């Protein structure tokens, strides 16, 4: 599942998989509406962590539980890469993904976040990307995380520009929750 945020952290786009996964309409997830799908025990951790990541304009990974349409909860990994653009490399927000963690022993898991290179986990078969552009964004996010491990940092500027463009294209294909509002 792909998402895009503004610089203030408000969500401007969630892929169609969000609705299938949580039961919440995409229009209800924009801005901060998505947070109602977070497990009550993970809510404070998520809000504080995301505020810190936004303030530092850092890549991040966040593990927490999301509510499913049947009111059960499942663990997901959320991660994002910051987008910067003109003028002067201004922080514009994030392009990120959410991946359901494979079933296993979740009893010992806790919600947590890290401010570091985001390497998305493999896609869960139950939540495949909804469009070719979302699949491209998933692969770009994976490539971004792998570049650091392969010491190919020269590719980061090009890859970040591709991530930025993917975020713009994804948000351009949706309608803003506020008429006339510019998403990026």
Work out the helicity level.
25-40%
Written as H for each helix and E for each strand, in order along the chain, the element string is EEHHHEEEEHH
CATH architecture: 2-Layer Sandwich
> Major β-sheet, in short?
6 strands, antiparallel
The number of strands is: 6
Q: Oligomeric status of the shown chains? A: single chain
Calculate the mean pLDDT score and round it. Answer: 79
How large is the share of residues in beta strands? Answer: 15-25%
In the CATH hierarchy, the third-tier topology is known as: Beta-Lactamase
Cα Rg: 15 Å
| Terminal Cα span | 20 Å
* Poorly predicted parts: 175-184
Coarse shape: globular
The level 1 CATH classification is: Alpha Beta
Task: Describe, in plain words, how this protein is organized in 3D.
The protein is α+β, with helices and mostly antiparallel strands and 184 residues long. It has one domain (2-172): 2-Layer Sandwich (Beta-Lactamase). The protein contains five helices and six strands; from the N terminus they run ββαααββββαα. The chain has helices spanning 16-22, 26-29, 40-56, 132-150, 156-172, and strands at residues 2-5, 11-14, 60-67, 73-85, 90-100, 112-114. It has a six-stranded antiparallel β-sheet, with helices on both faces. A hairpin with a 5-residue loop joins β3 (60-67) and β4. α4 (132-150) runs antiparallel to α5. The chain is globular, with a radius of gyration of 15 Å. Residues 175-184 have low confidence and may be disordered.
């Amino acid at each position: 599942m792909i998402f895009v945020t503004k610089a203030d952290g408000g969500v401007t786009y969630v892929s169609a998989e969000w609705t299938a996964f949580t039961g919440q309409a995409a229009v209800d997830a924009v801005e901060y509406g998505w947070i109602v799908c977070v497990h009550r025990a993970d809510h404070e951790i998520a809000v504080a962590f995301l505020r810190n990541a936004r303030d530092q304009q850092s890549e991040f990974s966040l593990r927490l539980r999301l509510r499913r349409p049947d009111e059960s909860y499942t663990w997901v990994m959320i991660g994002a890469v910051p987008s910067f653009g003109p003028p002067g490399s201004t922080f514009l927000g994030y392009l990120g993904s959410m991946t359901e963690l494979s079933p296993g022993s979740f009893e010992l898991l806790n919600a947590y976040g890290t401010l570091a290179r985001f390497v998305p986990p493999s896609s869960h078969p139950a939540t495949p990307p909804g469009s070719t552009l979302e699949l491209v964004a998933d692969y770009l996010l994976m490539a971004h995380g792998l570049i650091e491990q392969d010491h190919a940092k020269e590719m980061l500027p090009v890859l970040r520009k591709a991530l930025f463009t993917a975020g713009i294209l994804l948000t351009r294909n949706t309608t803003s929750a506020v008429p006339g509002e510019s998403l990026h």
